């Protein structure tokens, strides 16, 4: 399927000039969305701060007074598995 007009005939349209700065047309096109984008950004920021504040408040209300903390074992025999773990790569060689 061939295009109706050759591409080289169509003028190059861009919102940026040769120095990659916004043209007046680009500035006019973006003005309609400026307020809407600012309101959306502020709304999203308020939502994020509210979720963070709610989470911190919910976590700070936790109370652990009903949790029984076990006493420290009195001797090594009372605590099973109290020996330190052996490191993975080293082996002791008996002489």
TrEMBL record:
Cellular compartments per GO CC: mitochondrial inner membrane
Stretches assigned to the Cytochrome c oxidase assembly factor 3 mitochondrial coiled-coil domain: 26-66
Membrane topology: Single-pass membrane protein
Region Disordered: start-end pairs: 72-95
Location in or out of the cell: Mitochondrion membrane
Keyword Acetylation: no
Domain of life: Eukaryota
Chief site of localization: mitochondrion
Record field: transmembrane: 33-54
Keyword Transmembrane helix: yes
PANTHER family the record matches: CYTOCHROME C OXIDASE ASSEMBLY FACTOR 3 HOMOLOG, MITOCHONDRIAL, CYTOCHROME C OXIDASE ASSEMBLY FACTOR 3, MITOCHONDRIAL
Function per UniProt: Required for assembly of cytochrome c oxidase (complex IV).
Name listed for the protein in its UniProt record: Cytochrome c oxidase assembly factor 3
């Amino acid at each position: 399927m061939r295009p109706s007009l050759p591409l080289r005939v169509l003028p190059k349209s861009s919102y940026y000039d040769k120095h990659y700065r916004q043209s007046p047309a680009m500035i006019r096109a973006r003005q309609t969305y400026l307020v809407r984008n600012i309101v959306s950004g502020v709304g999203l920021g308020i939502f994020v701060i509210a979720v963070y504040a709610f989470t911190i408040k919910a976590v700070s209300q936790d109370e652990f007074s009903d949790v029984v903390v076990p006493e420290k074992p009195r001797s090594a025999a009372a605590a099973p598995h109290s020996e330190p773990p052996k490191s993975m790569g080293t082996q002791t060689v008996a002489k």
